[in-house]
Amino acid sequence: MAILYIVGTPIGNLKDITLRALEVLRGVDFILCEDTRVTQKLLDRYEIKTSTLSYHQHSQLKKAEYVIQLLKDGKNLALVSDAGTPGISDPGNKLIAEITGVAPLQIAGVAPLQITPIPGPSALTAAASISGFSMDRFVFMGFPPAKNKRKKFFEEAVNSKYPVIFYESPYRILKTLKELSSYTEELSSLKSSLKIVVCRELTKKFETIYRGTIEEVLEKLGREEIKGEFVVIIGK
Ligand code: SAM
To answer: Is the pTM value of this prediction over 0.70?
Structure first.
């Protein structure tokens, strides 16, 4: 039975990979990558020779159909994203949804399709683990929308009963925090109790954790060159 492994890979520090992930990446027939160049760095580090394929390479066939065809041919596959756990706010999610939608339990006429998670790092859980907020329950909101419905997004985040976690790029982090501040201002009862944690470049050389009110964090970030990847956590 061919297996599709969904493999967690490092979010920065290449040492953050499980023994099982390395074994699977070595053992499968192909590794399906978001960007083969990014994954190749990890494979080179561990001297893994497995061939890689981009999810985007086969536009003539629907990606899901292509993956299913490989599985039908008896090929074991590993799916990875550029960083972290595939499916968490990245293109892996769409592919897995398509695959499970097309063949929920089995591919017509062939052995059942088996999808197996190989758990590993995620920026989401890494950030949650150091936040200090109660994480018994939390809301993950992915990325704020780039243009429309931003106000709705921030209102929902600020009004959440539980801590809220979202991802942000270096290009928009300041804009996002400024908007978050202004929407929080509108809801003044929350202003004094709202705290945020901004995690930058987790597990990497310039890892920095900023904690405080939105204004305090904005002030600290405003003094620095904005580079890297960010996770924002809003707590109460
Ligand atoms: N699937 C990935 C995961 O499990 O973490 C997330 C993919 S999403 C396309 C990429 C976003 O995750 C980045 O824009 C950033 O917000 C966050 N991210 C990834 N690596 C990070 C890191 N080392 N430090 C902080 N944030 C990171």
So the answer is: yes
